[in-house]
Amino acid sequence: GVVAQDGWGVKYTPKSICALKGSTVIIGCTYTYPLGFAIKKSFWSIRQVTSTSEPPDLSLDLRYQDRVQYLGDKQQNCTLSLRDVTEEDQCKYYFRFITYKADGKFQDKNGVQLFVTDLQVETPEEVVEGDDVTLTCKTTCNLTGPSYIWYKNGVSLSSNTKALNLKTVSSEHAASYSCAVLGQSHSSSAVILDVR
């Protein structure tokens, strides 16, 4: 995440992020530049600079306009907030800054990779009375340290892990199950567990 050329650099923390659909993402970012330069403009983009054009400012993109907020400053902080993320937001994000001097421009080439996941309950194909069954709240990337909430017919259960273990299942376990991440409003689609 650190790229430094003669005092020019951008550092992202972390370098890649896994976010739950509908959540808010904070991309931590700091930047450096040599003494004698002052920042004229700083912005984020999903495109890199080319020899013929500047990348577009994310805050002016209609898809992001009302959801993105620059939390940084014109000194060293370039933190970005992106709320209500969707699968379409899954891409690389790059920070760009321009100074008042013609040769004083910089954009990191690595960027930050954002992955966006939904939640899905994974169940065994067949469940027979007396089986021990594990339901899993599946994601497409690894969320950082979440606590999960499980629901049976819309009522929350006491389990707070990614896996819900049901011991010696009976017809009482036949129900609709869904999962969510604690503190987030988005939950998985409900899955019906049939017990034979």
Unreliable stretches (pLDDT < 50, length at least 5) are none
Q: If you compute it from the alpha carbons, what radius of gyration comes out, rounded to the nearest whole angstrom?
A: 22 Å
Report on the biggest sheet.
Answer: 5 strands, antiparallel
* Strand line-up in the sheet with most strands: 1-2-4-7-6
Number of strands: 17
Number of helices: 0
Report the mean per-residue pLDDT as an integer.
93
Q: Span from first to last CA?
A: 52 Å
The sequence of SSEs as H and E is EEEEEEEEEEEEEEEEE
What does this structure look like?
The chain is mainly beta and 196 residues long. Helix content is 0%, strand content 42%. The protein is built from no helices and 17 strands. The strands form four sheets. A five-stranded antiparallel sheet has the order 1-2-4-7-6, with no helix packed on it. Strands 3, 5, 8, 9 and 10 form a five-stranded mixed sheet that branches. A four-stranded antiparallel sheet has the order 14-13-16-17, with no helix packed on it. β13 (148-152) and β14 form a beta hairpin. The N and C termini lie far apart (52 Å). The model has no long low-confidence stretch (mean pLDDT 93).
